[in-house]
Amino acid sequence: KVDGNWWRGAVIYQIYPRSFQDTTGDGLGDIKGITQRLPHVASLGVDAIWLSPFFTSPMADMGYDVSDYCNVDPMFGTLADFDEMMTEAHRLGLKVIIDQVISHTSDRHPWFIESRSSRTNPKADWYVWADPKPDGTAPTNWLSIFGGPGWEWDGVRKQYYMHNFLISQPDLNFHNPDVQDAMLDTVRFWLDRGVDGFRLDTVNYYFHDKQLRSNPPMVYDTDGAGMETDTNPYSMQNHLYDKTQPENIGFLKRLRALLDSYDNRASVGEVGDGPRSLNTLALYTTGDDKLHMCYTFDLLGPAFSAAYIRKVMQTVLDTVVNGWVCWAFSNHDVVRHVTRFTEDPSEQDRVAKLSATLISVLRGSICLYQGEELGLSEAELTYEDLRDPYGIRFWPAFKGRDGCRTPMVWEAGETHAGFSEGAKTWLPIPADHASRSVDAQEAMPDSVLQHYRETFAFRKNHHALIDGDMTFIETNQDLLAFVREKGGEKLLFVFNLTREPQNFVLPKRMGDVMPVDLPGFVSKLEAGAVKLDALDVFCARV
Ligand code: TEU
């Protein structure tokens, strides 16, 4: 098991297959397209790719509604295309992580079709079925993440079934060991094919409360200002019984044992558990018998401030002592971070570069999302453009997730920026994206793209950054200052995420410091004080 720890500190590039590269002219990306563009991914110096779902699916939730776990949707190609893609990835030194969406299936999955057909069929208990309350209403007050009740009435069984997401995404009943076995079989299928790991969709949603208790209003402390009761019935914070059940630990152990029966395989779970997410992450990743690592939504929200990032990071250092976190600023579910972190287009490159440097020096593994290496902003779409059911439902209060899912931009001068030769792409490509294409940025030495390459190379050259310790330094300014340390290597970082220049006086006990230039940033030290421009970073050997 030479490479069993490859995931620890790894940089993972997320590919959204529908929007990466089209080779058939239908305006939708496909697996052959991924194979074709892998050299670009490898050129960034990343360790692995994570592919969002490409399995057989009616695509109600863009593939997160699976109807056959062991096949490729014809829209994306064939299993042979997948094998070819994986061979090419491995040849380029990239591990391959696929997205296991096992909390729920599509309602067109044969298991659900059978399960809903009667109350006595062999799969009758594979999903979460329940009788109505005496007054005919849904069994509990659980809500769907995508709006409305978390229960749907089925006229044939004359029972409700539970769904955390779309009505067409019924939740599996993980209390039933046959369901666990069936899902582990699908994991084994891909392990045997040679995949290196799994991103586990909604990993804390697998089990529901067996007693079917309604959620009480939840008391929580959002901003450190004291406990508040959440009385909003539509708030996710209300969820107490419908997810993160203790029984999940047993299943995660089974899953880990399966992964460990193969060499060098890894898992990264997605934990969406409101303010408790980091505690859940600690629980799921501590010890070598559950998940390797998880990510939460803590850095996927709006805040780009020293105080906020320090608070999140310090919580991790305090609670995730023997576990491991994977950070991301962007993915296929949230507004692209450049847009979240600045409204000023003239700051776009600077913010893209500074956030790349920041995420590369935090303690944890990293996911970056396709297009992030180009500094792409969120695409502005019209209602007519939308494809995401979540956005269609809540427009315009919530514009959905299509704005981060528009196609990759490869060659500025080509039709659809080189993404597709078809007449139309599934989502439009914004004009300002095309001008940030890969080929345009290849030609510019100080582009965001080159910055990502240089920054990942810098990270690779400093083991303290990959899995070294991290200690914060007190500052009374609005700065983020910390030391990363491993085996005699000690690196100080001071980030200024504000729009004002700032000075930082080095603590006396630090002794001699040797400024280190980071890619894209020159470290300035004058008479014991660090000089930071607006949106700047200082690094030194201490
Ligand atoms: O996301 C789970 C999840 O928590 C998201 O629904 C999140 O709350 C929302 O997207 C924030 O905008 C996973 C997948 O990443 C997502 O694409 C799927 O739609 C969802 O599961 C259902 O499978």
TrEMBL record:
Pfam families: Alpha-amylase, Malt_amylase_C. One of its GO terms (molecular function) is alpha-amylase activity. Signal peptide: none annotated. One of its GO terms (biological process) is oligosaccharide catabolic process. It comes from the Bacteria. Its EC number is 3.2.1.20. Keywords: Glycosidase, Hydrolase. It is an enzyme of class 3 (hydrolase). Residues 14-405 form the Glycosyl hydrolase family 13 catalytic domain. Belongs to the glycosyl hydrolase 13 family. This is Alpha-glucosidase. The lineage of its organism: Bacteria, Pseudomonadati, Pseudomonadota, Alphaproteobacteria, Hyphomicrobiales.
